[in-house]
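Quick log. Single chain, no ligands specified.
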Amino acid sequence: MPLTASMGFGSSSLMWFRKGIRIHDNPALEYASQSCSHLYPLFIIDPHYMKPDPNAFSPGSSRAGLNRINFLLQSLNDLDINIKKIGSRLLIVKGDPYEVLIRCLKQWNIGKLCFEYDTDPYYQALDIKIKDYALKTGIEVFSPVSHTLFNPTDIIQKNGGKPPLSYQSFVKLAGEPPSPLSTRYSSLPPVGHLGNCDISEVPTIKDLGYGDAKLEEFSPFKGGESEALKRLEECMKDKNWVANFEKPKGNPSAFLKPATTILSPYLKFGCLSSRYFYQRIQDVYKILPKHTSPPVSLLGQLLWRDFFYTAAFGTPNFDRMKGNRICKQIPWKDDDKLLEAWRDAKTGFPWIDAIMVQLRQWGWMHHLARHSVACFLTRGDLFVHWEKGRDVFDRLLIDSDWAINNGNWMWLSCSSFFYQYNRIYSPTTFGKKYDPNGDYIRHFLPVLKDMPKAYIYEPWTAPPSIQAKANCIIGKDYPMPVVSHDSASKECKRKMGEAYALNKTLNGLVSEDDLKNLRRKLDEGEDQRTKAKRSRQLLIG
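-> predicted structure:
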């Protein structure tokens, strides 16, 4: 259960910040600050998340790229500044969260421990240990649901013990979320004696050991509650835009002024309360009753977020294909060369590569850009496992979220939720609809900045003289395409059809051997078609 308590009371409270890095609509903070003489606001620098990993493919830890770590540090700095304004400070301790927390609970004589409920498996396992310790020692624990609009446990119970797997059934079960808290703090109880706990200020990137790490370009999005609320106000000023917002519309190539709210990283870290965001959208709808509706509306996007959180929380092995009852079993290719070409923006398809450069530099890209590169890697062209793409997004996105990232990769690879695998995002024509001149490509792939508009999406078709004039020889300055899109996409559709048929025949109970046999059959078929094609070319020649 997200809320537990024992009867032990003490004069000191500990507010453990994890996500929920904010003061507004923070039920754990509100409860922690009540009826206590001292309040200890704590954030633990977890080496599991923060420790530099020199072997990773980009600067950062083993779990997160440097852009996301930097965004988190900015968010903590902002929280510290805001807490200091109301008479307290953020206490930073480095170390294993369980060990640090037990030490602090003892040293500070804590009677009440408060932290936001978290559905991620890492925190689920950690919180069981923490609550077990608190129960044995008589410490009261308050762990409310405030990262999502709804409590996933409640929705799963309403649905007979299973998560709803369609958006419509989720929305029907969910109803209206609780209102955000309207608490305003004039002051917080003071921090008490710190004992022997090694307290520091919010560290810098350099303090964490990233002294030599240099990002080509840090994310333009600054972390923190103050920035989140400022961005929210900017969005809400344009009431017509809020009322008429309609996903999946929007321009994925707009980078100077992105065609979306860019509030996802602030929701991910809890710098912005989803309940407060929901309420503000509802306020606009009251003024402009003619507005878009879920699933495409702005309100609908917040409901999608909760939908994925609930599906993830109620589905064992949600983050993998194997052992995941809602995921189609598909014999994806294990091809590290193709994966690296995609990851490192070297596929030879400028639309795909430009998106992957934006991801690496900014830690963010438009949702339709995400759709394009995810489809391309999996069922569209390369047929590489969605888990591999998920890992790259999980590392590089500043808004990477365990439930949403896994859910979207299953969706876009047609492994779950969405099954129309014949509908793909073309790597050569989709971007052109929004940006015929290729300005987005020119910005993120400057090697192609002088390529004429007629060839910017397919530069390998440019005559050698045009390539020379553009100072970009394809195959030398910019790669040749790693696949022929037309034949690769046909091959992917054929493989998806075979995999779907196998899943249907075996009622989803596909074994490892079944997948191996299908992979062998598909590879043999592909080899035969390749040989036949070469024979035809030789005959024509």
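Residues 1-10 have pLDDT under 50 and may be disordered.
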